[in-house]
Design goal:
Elements (H helix, E strand, L loop, with lengths): L13 E4 L12 H4 L17 E3 L2 E3 L17 H7 L8 H4 L1 H11 L28 H4 L2 H4 L26 H14 L6 H15 L54 H7 L3 E5 L20 E3 L20 E3 L20 E3 L20 E3 L7 H10 L1 H11 L11 E3 L10 H4 E8 L16 H4 L1 H15 L3 E8 H13 L3 E7 L8 H4 L3 E8 L3 E10 H6 L8 H7 L5 E9 L5 E8 L7 H24 L23 E6 L7 H8 L1 E2 L13 H4 L2 E2 L4 E3 L11 E2 L4 E2 L2 E6 L3 E7 L4 H4 L17 E7 L9
Parallel strand pairs: 1-3, 1-4, 4-5, 5-6, 6-7, 7-8, 10-11, 16-17
Antiparallel strand pairs: 2-3, 9-24, 10-25, 11-13, 12-13, 14-15, 15-16, 17-23, 18-19, 20-23, 21-22, 24-25
Helix pairs in contact: 4-8, 7-10, 10-11, 19-20
Length: 769
């Protein structure tokens, strides 16, 4: 029986092709389907008896891992029994045309995915200009056949687009035609898998160790074939969040070390399925359970639709559905944001769903041979795939907004009373994504109108005001926007604020400084009074530590990061109670998780010093009826809240340090770097910190992009002085399942705001010693 869990296959080049002639043993309709191929693994192929034949994983069980390469490719018995008249002849000898065709595939010739990285290939009436084509190959029998015709499965002449014969001057359209010609020559059954098998055998014949997998260049599919890449693609570090590519503040990959899921994916021995040229009329849903697939070839079949279940294949980078009878494609394809090549040549498509506009990494959309409507065809003919994707993205209708986030009340051990309003306050933390970092290059999936700052800033302000938090900690606020927009707008609602930009602003001209982002803290001036404020510059604090001066890592790793934290010392106007509020934004790069840990340790050391100084300050509030404000023997007795974007997930060293109060000197996040006593004695702080969401579990996401989805924003509080009484819940999971990432029309930043309510606990007397 078919198992939903894909069985492991010890393949060296991660390729599997499905033979539609092999039926499942339990298939009650086997006698009816033996000579009529149908799609899907459920009644088309059995993957339980996969084996390796010449380094290619097949699905018919006829070969074995130790068997030498044979002309039958492990399935000559099925081919001879079900499709070909002469069962005594091998597949290769029966069709010399295909033999020559596959020989070219093995030598790097005609293959849809074997495309050069440039767009400068001329298209002629004969053979496409490609390094893979030689004069000898140009006379190959398979090139003499009519385009799109197969000796095994005759097809009609491919459908041509309206202007395909007249438009060919732009480099973009030349590349389109080049790809289309190669696609039409990939009509034979399992073309890509067979070409990969021959390529693997050729490499062994050339002396390569057969026990080692074939080393493929950047952009190469696991079958040994490749697709066009951008000039910088494939370089080390291009898996970089908040979207697509790394920036000084917004990384595009994982925020922390490699995840466990990545390790699990590395164990998967095959990631490509070739079901091309089989005359399939539908694809079984079982195929879409293989969520690890990176390439899917279903070209040259008889498909009229694609199942929306294809949305499960989130890791696909190549999808080839050319040479079918598709009249429409599902909007769910827009969720496959890893796609770099989508080939739909020679179908019946007249329109494209605007949801495809979120395919921001798509480098080639193959639509030649479709009766596409004129406006779409004109865009791609003159400006290429990126222009068409941008048009679809910006013209896509706005989806239904998500339901309001739920407010979660939490029971506390603090007794309720008539003065609850004086002892209760709410804190909001929000990374607003400053204008400088919100570029189309980084957020290519976001409609242009939803990415502009004028739209987003109004949305952000509205969101802040709607929650009516008493304290608002904002990160990534540009200095100019703080002075010209946030500070005057929030002042109208009785908020006062403090702001500090990143350290780099001190060495810049005034016009440049206004675009430097930093941390802004606003508080309700009717409730709190600002007693004092202080800036923490982590790179400057590091210089002041004698034990740090002897380590090169401080100068090479910590000193080059100019992150800051803004500290506000507040006093409650009605009770005189003090409150310490920290607003921090840690470094983003996952390769510098040691720096995040060092920054967090320095933050806690500074807060202890600031808190002790704050405790000694005389109260500035005169209470009615001669009441005395609370007194604090040390900073640890003052209620404290730490908000910010820590760029660290709950399994990180930063989270462990803040929540548990200590980190061993050999913690893996230090990565063998040296930081004085931090790495010789470990980290420690004496505050009983808890994350506000500790009681219900951290939110599934506070940052949501195609490259990263997880919790990295937190509100920490001193649990000995404060009790958490309420939280803002998560974003609707059903909504998240249908959007590729933030920002979008409903969320103005790549982060979501988090909100917590606290009650001040009655002061406890200092224990006598």
């Amino acid at each position: 029986m078919y198992s939903p869990s894909p069985p492991p296959v010890a393949a060296s080049n991660a390729y599997v092709y499905l033979n539609h002639h092999q039926q499942l043993a339990s298939n009650p309709y086997a006698s009816r389907t033996q000579s009529h191929p149908v799609g899907g693994l459920g009644n088309a192929a059995s993957l339980n008896d996969m084996s390796l034949v010449g380094g290619v994983a097949s699905a018919n069980g006829a070969g074995s891992a130790g068997a030498p390469p044979s002309a039958s490719y492990g399935h000559a018995s099925q081919l001879g029994a079900t499709r070909y008249d002469n069962a005594n002849m091998s597949w290769m000898s029966r069709y010399p045309a295909r033999q020559a065709h596959l020989a070219q595939g093995a030598s790097g010739a005609s293959s849809l995915a074997s495309l050069p990285p440039s767009l400068g290939h001329a298209v002629s009436a004969g053979v496409p200009s490609s390094p893979g084509y030689s004069a000898a190959m140009a006379s190959s029998p398979h090139l003499m056949m009519a385009t799109g015709m197969s000796p095994a499965t005759p097809r009609t002449q491919p459908r041509a687009s309206a202007a395909s014969s007249t438009v060919g001057t732009s480099p973009e359209w030349q590349q389109q035609m080049y790809c289309a010609e190669i696609s039409r020559q990939s009509f034979s059954p399992h073309h890509h898998a067979r070409a990969a098998a021959l390529a693997a055998r050729s490499s062994v014949s050339a002396g390569q160790d057969p026990k080692k997998s074939i080393q493929l260049p950047a952009g190469a599919a696991a079958n040994g074939l490749s697709f066009p890449l951008a000039p910088d693609a494939g370089k080390a570090g291009d898996e970089s969040i908040s979207g697509i590519s790394a920036s000084p503040s917004k990384p595009a990959g994982l925020r922390t070390a490699s995840s466990k899921s990545d390790e699990g994916d590395a164990e998967q021995s095959w990631s490509i399925i070739d079901m091309g040229g089989l005359n399939l009329k539908n694809i079984g849903l079982e195929v879409f359970r293989y969520t690890f697939l990176t390439s899917l070839f279903i070209n040259h079949n008889s498909l009229t639709t694609l199942s929306p279940a294809i949305v499960q294949l989130r890791n696909l980078s190549i999808l080839d559905a050319s040479g079918n009878k598709l009249v429409m494609i599902p909007p769910e394809l827009g969720m496959l944001t890893e796609l770099k090549a989508l080939f739909l040549f020679d179908n019946c498509l007249t329109v494209l769903p605007p949801e495809l506009g979120t395919l921001y990494q798509l480098e080639m959309l193959g639509i030649e041979g479709n009766p596409l409507q004129e406006n779409l065809l004109s865009i791609i003919q003159h400006d290429g795939t990126p222009a068409l994707i941008a048009f679809l993205r910006d013209s896509c209708p706005v989806s239904v907004p998500p339901p309001e986030r739920e407010w979660i009340a939490i029971e506390t051990d603090v007794p309720s009373g008539e003065n609850d309003t004086e002892t209760t306050f709410a804190v909001l933390s929000y990374n607003v994504l400053c204008e400088k970092y919100a570029t189309p290059q980084m957020y290519g999936y976001t409609p242009g109108w939803a990415l502009v700052w004028d739209y987003r800033k109004e949305f952000i302000l509205q969101e802040i005001m709607s929650y009516s938090a008493d304290i608002c900690c904002l990160q990534e606020v540009e200095m100019g926007q703080y002075e010209e927009y946030f500070e005057p707008k929030l002042k109208q609602s009785d908020y006062e604020g403090i702001f500090w930009p990143k350290s780099r602003a001190r060495t810049m001209r005034e016009d440049e400084r206004r675009h430097v982002d930093g941390c802004a803290t606003f508080f309700n001036s009717r409730i709190f009074r600002l007693v004092d404020k202080q800036l923490i510059e982590f790179n400057q604090i590091a210089l002041q530590r004698p034990d740090f001066k002897k380590t090169e890592d401080i100068f090479n790793r910590v000193m080059t990061k100019d992150n800051v934290a803004a500290i506000a010392m507040l006093e409650h106007r009605a009770t005189g109670a003090k409150l310490l509020v920290a607003n921090a934004h840690m470094h983003w790069d996952p390769e510098f998780r040691d720096v995040k840990l060092v920054q967090s340790a320095m933050l806690m050391e500074q807060l202890e010093s600031i808190g002790n100084r704050f405790a000694k300050m005389a109260p500035q509030t005169k209470l009615e009826n001669g009441a005395s404000p609370p007194k604090y023997a040390s900073g640890k007795q003052i209620p404290m809240v730490i908000c910010g974007d820590f760029n660290s997930t709950p399994d990180s060293g930063v989270y462990e340090f803040l929540s548990q109060g200590e980190t061993p000197p050999d913690h893996q996040d230090f990565m063998d770097h040296t930081y004085g006593t931090y790495t010789s004695e470990g980290l420690r702080h004496d505050y009983a910190l808890r994350s506000a969401y500790h009681n219900i579990g951290e939110l599934p996401i506070t940052n949501y992009t195609p490259g990263f989805r997880g919790a990295i924003d937190y509100i920490w509080y001193s649990s000995n002085t404060l009790a958490n009484s309420g939280l803002l819940g998560e974003v609707d999971p059903a909504y998240l399942a249908r959007v590729v990432g933030f920002p979008n029309a409903h969320f103005p930043s790549d982060h979501v705001c988090i909100l917590a309510e606290f009650k001040v606990k009655p002061p406890k007397p200092e224990s006598s010693r």
